[in-house]
Amino acid sequence: MKPNHSRRVVLASTSPRRQELIASLHIPYEIRPSYADEHTPSDWTPRQIVEGLALRKAQAVYEEIGDPSENAVIVGSDTIVVLEDQVLGKPADDADAFRMLKSLQGRAHHVYTGVACIDAATGQRMVRHRMTRVVMKPLSDATIQAYVQSGEPRDKAGAYGIQGLGSTLVEGIEGCYFTVVGLPVSLLSDMLSEFGIDVL
Ligand SMILES: Cc1cn([C@H]2C[C@H](O)[C@@H](COP(=O)(O)OP(=O)(O)OP(=O)(O)O)O2)c(=O)[nH]c1=O
């Protein structure tokens, strides 16, 4: 059976990494930045945070383009880094990035990414998450400082990007690499097929 490519994906994201990953699936897509409120109650679990925020991001775009004639699936995603019971989002500034990396170095943490799909015509929705364990090498203050000065940590949860210079800080991972980068494509392709979009 040929893949059904008549529906398109609307990626509710400003993240260049997510845009590159959706492009790699070779399905029709468009980008619509979503500016949902990212504050969450302090008692939410990591799963509730990433699933809740992924859904909020998709919902914000659904409210703009949702229409019975719209043959599209809206996708939202959210990533956090969790060190024991501490949730690390994006660093506020370079000092915050240094502090985050100092706490992550030499030990393991978990990266959670939530993915939400909303059918733009019917409003039908699905939300899931994936988690990957990452072990970071022991790092000297000088190495952390040099990495912070590269500018890479600024827009990334946990203040590192495994896909960039941050790859040199990581000892190993258990789980899906793309969950760390911010969009678990294998989970997304399973979810899209439930909405009538077959990647293969
Ligand atoms: C841990 C890690 C995070 N990240 C990024 C992925 C996400 O873009 C970012 C986490 O912030 P998010 O709030 O999940 O996403 P965002 O604000 O960048 O984009 P959106 O418009 O979709 O809300 O951290 C990496 O790129 N590499 C990594 O190794």
UniProtKB/TrEMBL annotation:
<keyword id="KW-0963">Cytoplasm</keyword>
<dbReference type="Pfam" id="PF02545">
    <property type="entry name" value="Maf"/>
</dbReference>
<feature type="active site" description="Proton acceptor">
    <location>
        <position position="78"/>
    </location>
</feature>
<dbReference type="InterPro" id="IPR003697">
    <property type="entry name" value="Maf-like"/>
</dbReference>
<comment type="similarity">
    <text>Belongs to the Maf family. YhdE subfamily.</text>
</comment>
<keyword id="KW-0546">Nucleotide metabolism</keyword>
<protein>
    <recommendedName>
        <fullName>dTTP/UTP pyrophosphatase</fullName>
        <ecNumber>3.6.1.9</ecNumber>
    </recommendedName>
</protein>
<comment type="function">
    <text>Nucleoside triphosphate pyrophosphatase that hydrolyzes dTTP and UTP. May have a dual role in cell division arrest and in preventing the incorporation of modified nucleotides into cellular nucleic acids.</text>
</comment>
<feature type="site" description="Important for substrate specificity">
    <location>
        <position position="79"/>
    </location>
</feature>
<feature type="site" description="Important for substrate specificity">
    <location>
        <position position="163"/>
    </location>
</feature>
<feature type="site" description="Important for substrate specificity">
    <location>
        <position position="17"/>
    </location>
</feature>
<keyword id="KW-0378">Hydrolase</keyword>
<dbReference type="InterPro" id="IPR029001">
    <property type="entry name" value="ITPase-like_fam"/>
</dbReference>
